[in-house]
Amino acid sequence: MDLLREGIDIQVRRPRGDGQGQKVRLVLTNLSGHAYPAGSRRRALLVYAGAGAGGEPPLIATLAPRRPGLLHVAAAGNQQGANTQPALAPGEQRSFDVSVAASAEAVAWRVVYCRNLLQPGSYSVEILSGTERLGG
Q1: Are 114 and 80 in contact (CB under 8 A)?
Q2: Pick the CATH number of 2-131 from 2.60.40, 3.30.450, 3.30.70, 3.10.180
Q3: Distance between CA 94 and CA 25 in Å, rounded?
Q4: 132 CB burial (10 A radius; 0-12, 13-18, 19+)
Q5: pLDDT per residue as tens digits for the range 20-67
Q6: Can you give the pTM of this predicted structure?
Q7: What radius of gyration, in Å, describes the C-alpha atoms of the chain?
Q8: Of 20, 30, 68, 71, which is the most buried if we count CB atoms within 10 A?
């Protein structure tokens, strides 16, 4: 599991207030020497982020290797197919903007590595998670 964690980094950029809410930018960086995740097109990183008021933050993106027939995107009833993006290239940084209510005190995030999205109960592990306080 340490190798999975060491291959990726996350940074949280401070929110910008817009009167209607707050925006937080999560920046994922691939630190490995290959695409991340790599290997089978069934592998993926699930990125969750939202207001840190307890509970599970919503899924905001799925990163998966690009190969013909991205299987998990077509899987019936598989919510992980939403907002599917290609795996991170070596050294690539990718940003995700997360909107939270102006009253939110924190934003929470999780990054989960999945070995096989098509097989319920297959190996998956949380590799990054955290909470960032907002405001003062």
Answers
A1: yes
A2: 2.60.40
A3: 10
A4: middle
A5: 678 889 999 999 999 999 887 788 899 999 987 667 899 999 998 876
A6: 0.83
A7: 15
A8: 30
